[in-house]
TrEMBL record:
GO cellular component terms listed in the entry, alphabetical order: plasma membrane
Biased composition (Low complexity): 525-536
Protein name as it appears in the record: Drug resistance transporter, EmrB/QacA subfamily
PANTHER family: EXPORT PROTEIN, MAJOR FACILITATOR SUPERFAMILY MULTIDRUG TRANSPORTER MFSC
Keyword terms: Cell membrane, Membrane, Transmembrane, Transmembrane helix, Transport
Bilayer disposition of the protein: Multi-pass membrane protein
Origin species: Micromonospora pallida
Compartments, record wording: Cell membrane
């Protein structure tokens, strides 16, 4: 028993369990979908989705999540965190149910957007609830469990997805969320106390609207250009309009008193560099993961379960090593640790440019493991640097900005690198599709999954088509890998220029409080208190 009076809630550990399970749902859904992409593209056993539609199935979730994360966090602080946790779980469960029974790709895209809305309501309030119910001296440990659940979700998602697809139809990867969401609703209603911020921030509705419109328009232009070509005015109109709206968003955020995203923070190189680093790493890593899922299941012929198991080194390396990276940062500084990590990620991504249909499977497992080791030594130290660059009272803002940039980077990575994949594949497969009927030719040129979908009806011509399609996809994958490695290398140069070599504690930070110094906190928290810490009031005991 501790020698001090514990001011935490009596049910704080079961409450932590509710928040962890809720976070598992949100994070696992982003990884479980990777192993289902081939099945969703199958016209018989799935929805016959094109590559662009699969990109939208991923990005509709990510863009809504990232676009509304700040706003729903503020609303949760204002109107009640338990209320928003329960509402988020209900919406997430509903979106999962709609996704499971989607009848066509467009329905799946819309249902995934509903899931993103639920996820954006869940994630910010889980940290605020932990800050409310735990004594400050126990809080770093609680946040450690919260952060470790992210690594667990990354590891469990592909494996669970593979198991479900081995025994059930594709909708099971979404339907599995429903009973967990219902259990979370019941447990949350019974265990989690209501809490509010007595001085909540105001809501920047114009900023939220501009960010969502800009990101969606830009992403649509990139994805559509990759699928149908960038030689059409409508594509460039969408891309340029999206960029213009995002510029207007930045202009608005600089002038409003209550910004959805405080862009003025990016004037500080010690803040901007690690945030940009996280965005670039997830841009490169998410795009390559999207491509590699098709390579493993179509070119190599692995089952969804086997594919999920192959991603295990990537996830386990982050789960095991990320919490230990803080020790290396204290000894060598963030620049050295992040530099080593980003170097490993760059090498791993570039290594995919050497992978083909005959590459031993252990080589792919090693590449994914090296990437996981690298990312384990980037995310946590970068987050630590972000928080160290800010006064303690702005630690929550730093964490929120990092999460948002990570989500946007992942969405744009899938979009941009997916567009590169589509453009190179279409150019390389064209010689084998010239004499095919129009509808068959469009499907075969649209994606590798499309070529496999139409091949059974081609008779003797199927073998030649699939051989050319496989070679075209591998060539396109090499282009994506080299571009992703170049992006990671660009991040390495910026990091060496601006990331601090040692932990820098801003003026006014109290070393006596582990929440202020970063302590031995886990990735994503660095021991810092999330939004609302120190200002929350329990509104009831449940």
């Amino acid at each position: 028993m501790p020698a001090y009076a514990n001011t935490g809630h009596p049910r704080r550990w079961p409450i932590l369990g509710v928040t962890v399970v809720s976070l598992l749902l949100v994070v696992m859904d982003t990884t479980i979908l990777n192993v289902a992409l081939r099945t969703l593209a199958d016209p018989v056993h799935g929805l016959g989705a094109s590559q662009a539609e699969l990109e939208w199935a991923i990005n509709s979730y990510t863009l809504v999540f990232a676009g509304l994360l700040f706003t729903l966090g503020v609303l949760g602080d204002r109107y009640g965190r338990r209320r928003f946790l329960l509402a988020g779980l209900a919406v997430f469960g509903l979106g999962s149910l709609l996704s499971a029974y989607a009848q066509e790709p467009a329905h799946l895209v819309l249902a995934r957007a509903v899931m993103g809305l639920g996820g954006a309501a869940i994630m910010p309030v889980t940290l605020s609830i932990i800050a409310t119910v735990f004594d400050p001296r126990e809080r770093p440990r609680a946040i450690g469990f919260w952060s470790a659940s992210v690594g667990l979700a990354v590891a469990a998602g592909p494996i669970l997805g593979g198991v479900l697809l081995e025994h059930f139809w594709w909708g099971s990867v979404f339907l599995v969320n429903v009973p967990v969401a219902v259990a979370g609703l019941v447990a949350g209603a019974l265990l989690v106390p209501e809490s509010r911020d007595p001085r909540p921030g105001r809501i920047d509705l114009p900023g939220v609207g501009l960010s969502v419109v800009g990101l969606v328009t830009l992403t649509w232009g990139v994805i559509d250009g990759g699928e149908h070509g960038f030689d059409r005015p409508v594509v460039w109109a969408a891309v340029l309009s999206g960029l213009a709206v995002l510029v207007a968003f930045g202009w608005h955020e600089r002038r409003t008193e209550h910004p959805a995203l405080d862009v003025r923070l990016f004037r500080m190189p010690r803040f901007a560099a690690p945030v940009a680093l996280v965005g670039l790493v997830f841009f490169a890593g998410s795009g390559v993961m999207f491509v590699s899922a098709f390579h493993l299941q179509l070119v190599r012929g692995h089952s969804p379960l086997h594919t999920g198991l192959l991603y295990l080194p990537l996830a386990l390396a982050q789960l095991v090593l990320a919490p230990r990276s803080a020790t290396l940062v204290r000894r060598y500084g963030a620049r050295v640790v992040c530099g080593g990590g980003l170097g490993l990620v760059t090498v791993a991504l570039a290594g995919w440019a050497l992978v083909d249909a005959a590459t031993p499977i252990w080589v792919i497992a090693v590449l994914l493991g090296v990437q996981g080791v690298g990312m384990a030594h980037i995310t946590a130290p970068a987050t630590e640097s972000v928080l160290a660059a800010l006064p303690r009272q702005r630690a929550g803002v730093g964490s929120a900005v990092t999460n948002t940039v990570r989500q946007v980077g992942a969405a744009l990575g899938v979009s941009v690198l997916g567009a590169v994949l589509a453009a190179v594949y279409r150019a390389r497969v064209a010689p084998a599709t010239g004499e095919l009927p129009d509808g068959v030719r469009e499907a075969a040129e649209g994606s590798l999954a499309g070529a496999y979908g139409v091949a059974p009806g081609l008779g003797a011509d199927a073998t030649a088509l699939l051989a050319t399609a496989d070679r075209a996809f591998v060539t396109a994958m090499h282009s994506v890998a080299l571009l992703a490695a170049a992006v990671a290398g660009l991040g390495l140069l910026g990091m060496l220029r601006w990331l601090p070599g040692r932990s820098v504690v801003p003026t006014g930070t109290d070393h006596s409080d582990p929440a202020a110094s970063g302590g031995s906190g886990p990735p994503g928290s660095s021991g810092s208190e999330p939004p609302g810490t120190g200002r929350s009031e329990l509104a009831g005991a449940g």
